[in-house]
Amino acid sequence: MKKIFVLLGLMAGLCLASTAQAQVGVTASLGTTGLGLHLSVPVQPQLNARFGINAFSYDYNGNTSDVDYDAKLIMRTFDALLDYYPMSGNFRLSGGVVYNGNKIDANGRPGAGGVYTLNGRTYAASTVGSVDAQVDFRKFAPYLGIGWGNAVAKNKGWGFSTDLGVLFQGSPRTSMTHTGCTLASPLCAMLAADIADENRDLQNEVNDLKAFPVLRIGVSYSF
To answer: Is the pTM of this model over 0.90?
Structure first.
């Protein structure tokens, strides 16, 4: 994570160095990527570089066909984008790369009677231990989108900003583990096989998350 901050800082520093006499714009935003803060600097008359961080997290309940989960979506993205203004106005075309730290952490929740049903077999939760799952995504993902607002327009001051685009994060990766099995060794081995089957079900549940929609609105200020 520290390497990502250093990389973005170096990229922003290079742009700032090349535009030392130009305006700098800061945008605070809210949207599907969470709370965001972006720094914009001009590169060419119709081209800006934009660097930012977005973060948010929330808890929710999810399930597959067999297991209920207490899940937490953790959203952490770092943007390195170029904004092109084809008509020299506020409309922009945006593209770039995003470090995608989004992930889902989940803990299995026993069903009625304190049991898990895995691959058609029933296990007492007290003998299974904990059942944990994680979903994560490709770390570096391309972004394409459109938007409105130029945070570094001359004599701009305060402004309004929007982003509408897609983060192409690829096929999600799932992993599911269990710890603390107190059954006999052959039964623990069977449990492990059933956990692997449940992981395949979880993978099927999240396969459609290859493209993440990005919608942000924000307020900018240039100085």
So the answer is: no
Beta-sheet pairing, 103-109 with 130-136: antiparallel
> What per-residue confidence (pLDDT) applies to 17?
45
pLDDT in tens, 102-155: 999 998 888 878 888 888 888 998 898 888 999 999 999 999 999 999 999 887
Whole-angstrom distance, CA of residue 1 vs CA of residue 193: 34
- Nearest-5° Cα angle at 162, 19 to 32: 115
Residue-wise pLDDT tens digits, 67-103: 888 999 999 999 999 999 999 889 999 999 999 999 9
